[in-house]
Design goal:
single chain, alpha/beta, FAD/NAD(P)-binding domain, D-Amino Acid Oxidase, Chain A, domain 2, 7-stranded mixed beta sheet, 11 helices, FAD/NAD-bd_sf, Geranylgeranyl reductase family protein, FAD-bd
């Protein structure tokens, strides 16, 4: 807990001090605003998470974030149901692996140093808004501000209370962390494993950290039957995990951006801004629908909402509309592209694996998206041109296999 303990009125209140909330808090505080950050947990706090940051995070964070990087990733080993490994590498980093307790704590410290008041271990119980501001009630105090930012994750209280008609779509995932000791890695210290056939409509992953492996499966559909059996099968089929004890997995939702969000927006329903409230990161379902990457978009959306608020000296509801417009320009077009790719990859995993093997240069081109050299929207036209002829042939082949 930091800051001026007697103060109850702020310019901005942020609920949730994960990567999205901490990034927004730091930027707003540096801009001279009075910011309160609330979190039900005390940092640093352990959280089971893949912890993958695409390399484009370098465009958002100061170089100091490297102090909490566990591994630098330059390659992906693709497999299908644990077989036929295909390693595709890049000459430069495509991702960084972090432990969430260290990474999140680093960002919270950045916010504190910028001047944010932080209150942890105090759960938010209610949020209301009126024409003059917002009121946030915690278990211990009552606070008021001009605007509130929901950065409180996939099960966001801010979203439930101030966005009652919002889609509640969340993809289920199970994840465990296997302690292997320093100096031992699989599939390698600079390589992650992605199994495109491990789940029925999703994938399995193994991400190397300094002393452990993050092992998980995710299903990118509304209802996944017996995901635990899927996880156990993935662990059993992956020979690289043989001999290591895999602890019981922890379930967590992946709030991937979906067609439900797009449909709501087309019907005139705001999914990110409602009056004096805005949703960022996982609370706003700002998670890539192809690989479930959320941390990069958490940091980015946090900085985007801060930029919109700081551009309007009034710190009012209208300033949040600029944030929503920025999402529409800068992030949502890519989500629509990766969503289309995901719908094909996860519906036909064996076909997708064949395409990966045949068109490795397309994967190399997508690495450039992860590195921040281009966008998914710019990547798609060239990829479609390369794949068009073969997709028709392979679809026919896939149908003949059934």
């Amino acid at each position: 807990m930091t800051g001026r303990q007697g103060r109850t009125t702020y310019d901005v209140i942020i609920v949730g001090m994960g990567p999205a909330g901490a990034s927004a808090a730091a930027a707003l505080s540096r801009g001279g605003l009075a910011v309160l950050g609330l979190d039900k947990d005390t940092h640093p706090r352990y959280k089971v998470c893949g912890g993958g940051l695409s390399a484009r995070i370098e465009q958002l964070l100061e170089p100091g974030f490297r102090s909490v990087v566990e591994q630098t990733i330059k390659g992906v080993q693709f497999v299908h149901r644990g077989r036929d490994p295909l390693l595709i590498e890049s000459s430069e980093a495509i991702a960084y692996m972090v432990m969430r307790d260290r990474f999140d704590h680093y960002l919270v410290q950045q916010a504190i140093h910028a001047g944010t008041d932080i209150r942890t271990g105090d759960s938010v119980e209610g949020i209301t808004q009126d024409s003059t501001g917002v009121e946030v009630l915690t278990g211990q105090r009552r606070f008021r501000a001009h605007v509130v930012i929901g950065a409180d994750g996939a099960n966001s209280l801010v979203a439930r209370q101030l966005f009652p008609n919002r889609s509640q779509y969340r993809a289920p995932a199970l994840e465990s962390e296997v302690q292997i000791g320093e100096g031992r890695h699989f599939p390698g210290s600079t390589t992650i494993l992605v199994d495109v056939g491990a789940a029925r409509q999703g994938y399995g992953w193994i991400f190397p950290k300094r002393e452990c492996l993050s092992v998980g499966v995710g299903e990118f559909r509304r209802k996944a039957t017996n995901l635990r059996a899927t996880f156990e099968r993935f662990v059993k089929e992956e020979r690289g995990l043989s001999g290591w004890e895999v602890p019981r997995p922890v379930g967590h939702p992946i709030p991937a951006y979906s067609e439900a969000e797009r449909n709501q927006r087309s019907e005139g329903c705001s999914t990110f801004v409602n009056g004096r409230a805005a949703l960022i990161g996982d609370a706003g379902h700002l998670v890539d629908p192809l690989f479930g990457e959320g941390i990069y978009y958490a940091v980015r959306s946090g900085q985007m909402v801060a930029r919109a608020i700081l551009a309007d000296k009034q710190v009012c509801a209208e300033s949040l509309l600029a944030y929503e417009a920025a999402l529409e320009r800068e992030i949502l077009p890519d989500f629509r592209v990766t969503g289309r790719i995901a719908s094909v990859v996860y519906a036909f995993p064996r076909l997708a694996f064949k395409l990966l093997r045949r068109y490795q240069e397309v994967v190399q081109a997508y690495f450039r998206v992860l590195q921040g050299h281009t966008t998914a929207a710019q990547f798609l036209p060239d990829a479609k041109q390369r794949l068009k002829a073969s997709v028709n042939d392979l679809l026919l082949e896939a149908l003949q296999m059934r």
